[in-house]
Amino acid sequence: MRRLAELGDRQGAIFTSDLSVNEFLLVKEAGFHPVGLVLGSSIYHVGLQVGRWSKNQELTTLTQALYHARELAMSRMVAEAAALGADGIVGVRLTLEQKEFGSNVTEFIAIGTAVKAEGGRTQTQWRTRTGAPFTSDLNGQDFWTLLQSGHAPLGLVLGTCVYHIAHRGLGNVMATAGQNAELPQYTQALYEARELAMGRMQAEAEKLGAEGIVGVVLDSHNHTWGGHTTEFLAIGTAVRPYAVDHVIAPPTMVIGLDR
């Protein structure tokens, strides 16, 4: 934090960024400049919860662990951005790395580029209701395009669900051996798990007062739990309109002339 404070206060300090050259250009075109690469980390021991072999069920202890670990990493990333005086963070990436400290020990990492508005724009125009920098997993191109639409990012929202998918009994396996047949027990489990993750992501966006969520990614990870226990993760950027009178500019037409 001391290093970040010195970097933010020092006149003519260099910035660090994981933006590509094209992304850097478009972030500047959008009226922002990068002030530094910020990150948050949490090495977390994920507890143990046993699911019933023949029952579809959410494993709430594991769900809560993954929520809390990611929240710790993200809040520390936001704290670094605030120390730099940034108005937001773009290109946020959330990653997990298994450590050799133990099979249930995982490092949760949040990293992105902190940016600050140029041209005398007020911080309150871009920051959240609590005055914190916004967070977004949009890359530089998508961030520029979002602002052209009259919308601004509010925050990175996510929903997660760790779900145990029931094993099939021997009779059920034998009944479908060699046949084309839907497995309704599996279908229902995946439906329910994804629905829980998406509903929680939507609830986070509603809490922020968002108009909608863009760039949603719905993914699944087995981690170290085996094939019948899976984490379903829904993540996207909650957005809001920043100007009620904003008019979207028409696309530029390029005309080619024969020589």
Automatic annotation (TrEMBL):
InterPro entries per record: UPF0145_dom_sf, UPF0145_YbjQ-like
Reading the lineage from the top rank, the first entry is Bacteria
Chain segments annotated as coiled-coil in the UniProt record: none
Name the family the entry cites. Answer: Belongs to the UPF0145 family.
Spell out the protein name for this chain: Heavy metal-binding domain-containing protein
